[in-house]
Amino acid sequence: MGQQTTHLTKPQLFLSTLQVIVLLAGVLLSGGVAFPFGGQVVTVLDGGTIEVVRSGKAQRVRLNGIACPRSGQPYSEQAKQATSDLGFSMDVTLQIYGKDKQGRVVAEVLLPDDRNMSQLLVQQGWCWWDRKQAPDDTQLEALEKEARESQRGLWADPDPVPPWEWRKNARATTP
């Protein structure tokens, strides 16, 4: 017996193609897929934001899963310096997850030795684990707990104010 071939009608082909597109879009939008690329850190804007140059183009990057003290907030300069000490002028790999409200790329930033900058900053005590952005990141959760218990960085302060509270308080006092 010969091999039978099945031909899809145009509506069936359209539906099959549409299903594949919807499936891929769902995976991409879920944050389940990261897109890696490399570049060099050329600027540290604050503890949680850097600029990376790739192929001559600068890209503003927010470190995934962390919330650092805001400009003018206690420990903001120390967080910025810690980020600079870790990554300035380094060739890094970005695992991109998307963009934030300000249009910055949100990414895990891996140093040349594959250490994760967000994890290191949390471990050193210079930022908070961002529960909204990375609710399931048990590694960041554990590192924050360890930094708190060891009173490292901003955790030496008995009651550090997280940036989301600082921002809320700043809005409330602005005329």
From TrEMBL:
What InterPro entries does the record point to? SNase_OB-fold_sf, Staphylococal_nuclease_OB-fold
**TNase-like domain location:** 35-157
| Matches recorded under Pfam families | SNase
Locate the transmembrane regions by residue number. Answer: 12-35
Entry GO MF terms: endonuclease activity; hydrolase activity
Q: Which domain of life is it from?
A: Bacteria
Q: Which residues form a coiled coil?
A: none
Where are the stretches annotated Disordered? 145-175
Q: Look at the named UniProt entry and state the broad enzyme category this protein falls under.
A: hydrolase
**Xref: PROSITE patterns:** TNASE_3 (PS50830)
Q: Which UniProt keywords apply?
A: Endonuclease, Hydrolase, Membrane, Nuclease, Transmembrane, Transmembrane helix
Among PANTHER family, the record links this protein to:
EBNA2 BINDING PROTEIN P100, SERINE_THREONINE-PROTEIN KINASE 31
The protein here is known as Uncharacterized endonuclease (Modular protein)
Species of provenance: Candidatus Nitrospira nitrosa
